[in-house]
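User: Teach me something about this protein's shape.
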Amino acid sequence: MRVIAVSGLHRSGKTTVVEHVVAELVRRGYAVGTVKSIHKEGFSIDRLGSNTHRHRMAGASMVTAVSDGETAVMMTRRASYQEILSWYDTDWVVIEGARGEPYARIVCARTVDDIDECFDVHTFAVCGPVADGAGADGAAGGGITRWRGVPVLDARVHYREVVDLAEEKATSVSKPAAAGQAGYEERYETLITVDGVELPLNPFIQEFVARTVKAMVMSLKDAPDGDEIRVEIRRF
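Assistant: First, the predicted structure itself:
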């Protein structure tokens, strides 16, 4: 899986660049996922008073809303980009945001002075309003075609050149192996209830309990290697 970030200050044209980059990648036959960083104090995808919000207020650490056309998973914590990327099984992931993260980067800026706010060693292109009109053979409105050796391109017009650079510079991230492939590692979900009350278990504890119980069961004579193991313990 290949990953790029599209980073910049507020209203620097990031979403416009993402739209053109994603559309061109799809035209080239790739499956593409996106991640959108939202920097707004108190922001929540959930709506105050909704049923899913009531689930969270009751203490659920993860809530999934399912409709005929969409599935939305909400967690009560900030997931790292590394964890988020592990959920994707696409050829590309384009992250809008991710300033300071170690991914190949397109910097979007409104002015020349804004470029350095996000420019780093991972930057392979500069886009956004500062690049309006800029292409392989033309200067931008700011009169620049390169910045610190990096091409300045109007992604609305020269999206092919931008994606050519992305294909060359993108950060490679290993996809989780599929079942049956070398390197595949089984994952487990564990549910524990005490007198009908479900105990909250983080993913590490779920894996630990599941692998421990499975190892004990597999040590029993003639125990089948099934997909679900159910153990009930009652005190008399």
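Now, about its shape. The chain has two domains: 2-39+79-172, 186-236. The radius of gyration is 23 Å. If you'd like, I can walk through any region in more detail.
User: That's plenty for now, thanks!
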